[in-house]
Amino acid sequence: MSPQQFNQQRRDLLKSTCTLAGAAALWYRVSPDKIPAEIKDDTVEGIMAYSAVCTHLGCTLSNSLSNWDAATKQFLRPCHDALFDPLKEGANTGGATSRMLPHIPVSDKPSGYVGVKRG
Length: 119
Hints:
CATH topology: Rieske Iron-sulfur Protein
Number of domains: 1
Strand order of the largest sheet: 1-2-3-8
Number of helices: 1
Radius of gyration: 14 Å
Largest sheet: 4 strands, antiparallel
CATH architecture: 3-layer Sandwich
Distance between the termini: 42 Å
C-alpha cells in the first residue's frame, strides 16, 4: 500500500476508542459530504463521535480493528455481533440490540483539538 493510499484510508476510516468527557467514545471520520444532514452540525470536518458503550449489555468497545467490520464499514460489538452504522446516525443494523449507538456532538476547540460540543 502506498503512503497516499494509507493516508486516504485513514481519512476515510478513522476510528478509535478514547475518553471523551469521562466516557469512552468511538471516533469516525469520512468525507464531510457523506455525513447525514441530521448530525452534520455536530461534526467537524467529517469527524464524528459515538458512545463506545453498547446499547445491549453495556460492554465497551476497545481500540481494536477486531471491533470494525471492514466489509460493511460499521462498528462491531464482538461480544454479541451487534453492528452500528456511523453513517446512519449509529443505527443498529444487526445483532442483539435494536437501539442506536448514541451520537456525541463535537466541535472545534480553541486549542485546535476536537472535543465535546457544549451548549
